[in-house]
DNA sequence: AATATTATGTGATATTATTCACTTAATTAA
DNA sequence: TTAATTAAGTGAATAATATCACATAATATT
């Protein structure tokens, strides 16, 4: 099997997202050209990306939207519910809790964790909030595989260590800190400020990108 | 001047972020090797990236943290206050409003825009909220250069058009929709679900990445 | 003061990603 | 039924990015 480029994997979820929109719009078939246009990509890129995983299209016709979406979802592992735990229920954590986009894509918030006594033991938007000390037990019980880190920057590494102690190997980090994790753990950081800086840079240099 | 790689620009804000942490930790000097380690990059990469903009280091000594931070901030255009307007003050918009990370990096939320009559005219966390129809006037008056789009997905393109009508050319998009913009406008989309899907993919394929 | 050491800066090289140019299969029209 | 057309699929070429290997300069050591 030829090694699949990282860049390709990153685009798969982009394709999924657009296919969901197309599906909502009632489109049954899409051409690589159209999909590419909607995402500002090259049509060849779309076809090449897909070709790493199989032949999903029909010549002279295009790709069946729901079929391709199902295939890509399968590839990305978002067919079965992926359970996530949110660590830190401040402004951001609570906004995430309300975010409808998770369930649409097969993610389920299974438990919340915080240090604030006012939150521990209570139910926030229908989800139970636990103390950090209970994390190991709850994570195992609920089968949580992904952690969302939304605690204050200063607590990032400490809470990260608790998460690692639970055996979780996939982390989505919202803090502004770079946290240290072992080799076999995958961490992705979300940082809009980076993007804002980019916007500032480009708006100054009159250059353009995407 | 040799063309600066896009990938390099993207890493500049990463360097800034880590330099701020180092600065807080009281470090005065940092080696390309250490900076690279902390960000899971190759030391040569760090040096090469910086070399596009000048010679900031001292051989046998390393880089002066605050000096390099100042230089990179200058390059990224985050020395002068960049004024941003937030469009959509729901769960996410309000969380962003509370986010301290913006001001740290020279971004200032100058105005808020929504369609909800309950919000229009009121003050949210010290910031004035306006109707969309007032956007053009306020954007001009306040000198807003960057828009944050945090309205429901269905309203994304409509509100985008209002933003474009205000003459704003830099947009940070939080909606799950791909919005269409002219050539000379730069839009960056934030999507954690993409990253979650990646995490799900990698945790399944036992592979690892960053 | 001379020599060894260390870390930056950078041209050359290797790797990775994207696009081109073409082949193939399916469909439509003649 | 045959020819023309269209769009997927893909090896090869090109472009972009990352790494290597080393020259250079600053500091430390003898
Ligand atoms: N608000 C935003 O829009 C936003 C945007 C980007 C990034 N962030 C980042 O997300 C993180 C959280 O931001 P926020 O605005 O939600 O902060 P916040 O202060 O509103 O909330 C932090 C929450 O974490 C809890 N907490 C503190 N220490 C903890 C610990 N050791 N273990 C578990 N929980 C703990 C607190 O009780 C609180 O509920 C920060 O790192 C921030 O930089 C926030
Ligand atoms: N909540 C999250 O953590 C989260 C995370 C990622 C992405 N998002 C995305 O961000 C967007 C907003 O999410 P949310 O949870 O804040 O939604 P929300 O429903 O809580 O808030 C939406 C806000 O936009 C306002 N609004 C509606 N139509 C408008 C219009 N035409 N012009 C201006 N304002 C308008 C509403 O009055 C409301 O204040 C959505 O696209 C969502 O998918 C949210």
**Strand-residue proportion of chain A:** 15-25%
Helix and strand sequence of chain A: HEHHEEHEHHEEEHEHEEH
Largest sheet of chain A: 7 strands, mixed
Distance between the termini of chain A: 31 Å
Output the CATH topology of the largest domain in chain A.
Rossmann fold
Strand order across the largest sheet of chain A: 6-7-5-4-8-9-10
Which overall shape of chain A is indicated by the principal axes computed on the Cα atoms? globular
CATH class of the largest domain in chain A equals Alpha Beta
Q: How many helical elements of chain A?
A: 9
Q: Write the CATH architecture name of the largest domain in chain A.
A: 3-Layer(aba) Sandwich
- The level of helicity of chain A is 40-55%
Are any ligands bound, and if so which? nicotinamide-adenine-dinucleotide
How much is the average pLDDT of chain A? 92
For the secondary structure, the number of strands of chain A is: 10
**What Rg of chain A do the Cα atoms give?**
20 Å
Largest interface: A-B, 61 and 62 residues
Function (chains A, B): Modulates transcription in response to changes in cellular NADH/NAD(+) redox state.
InterPro entries (chains A, B): CoA-bd (IPR003781), NAD(P)-bd_dom_sf (IPR036291), Rex_actinobacterial-type (IPR058236), Rex_DNA-bd_C_dom (IPR009718), Tscrpt_rep_Rex (IPR022876), WH-like_DNA-bd_sf (IPR036388), WH_DNA-bd_sf (IPR036390)
Main location (chains A, B): cytoplasm
GO cellular component, one term (chains A, B): cytoplasm
């Amino acid at each position: 099997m030829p090694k699949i480029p990282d860049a390709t994997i990153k685009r798969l979820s982009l394709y999924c997202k657009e296919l969901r929109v197309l599906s909502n719009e009632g489109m049954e078939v899409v051409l690589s050209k159209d999909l590419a246009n909607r995402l500002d990509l090259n049509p060849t890129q779309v076809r090449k990306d897909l070709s790493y995983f199989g032949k999903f299209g029909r010549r002279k016709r295009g790709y069946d939207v729901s079929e391709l979406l199902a295939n890509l979802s399968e590839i990305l592992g978002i067919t079965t519910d992926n359970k996530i735990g949110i660590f830190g229920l401040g402004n951001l954590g609570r906004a995430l809790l309300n975010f409808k986009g998770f369930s649409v894509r097969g993610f389920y918030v299974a438990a919340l964790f915080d240090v604030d006594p006012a939150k521990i033991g209570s139910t926030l938007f229908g989800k139970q909030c636990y103390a950090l000390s209970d994390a190991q037990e709850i994570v195992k019980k609920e089968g949580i595989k992904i952690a969302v880190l939304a605690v204050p920057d200063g607590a990032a590494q400490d809470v990260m260590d608790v998460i690692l102690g639970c055996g979780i190997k996939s982390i989505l980090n919202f803090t502004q800190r770079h946290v240290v994790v072992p080799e076999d753990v995958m961490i992705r950081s979300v940082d809009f400020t980076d993007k804002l800086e980019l916007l500032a840079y480009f708006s100054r240099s009159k250059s353009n990108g995407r």
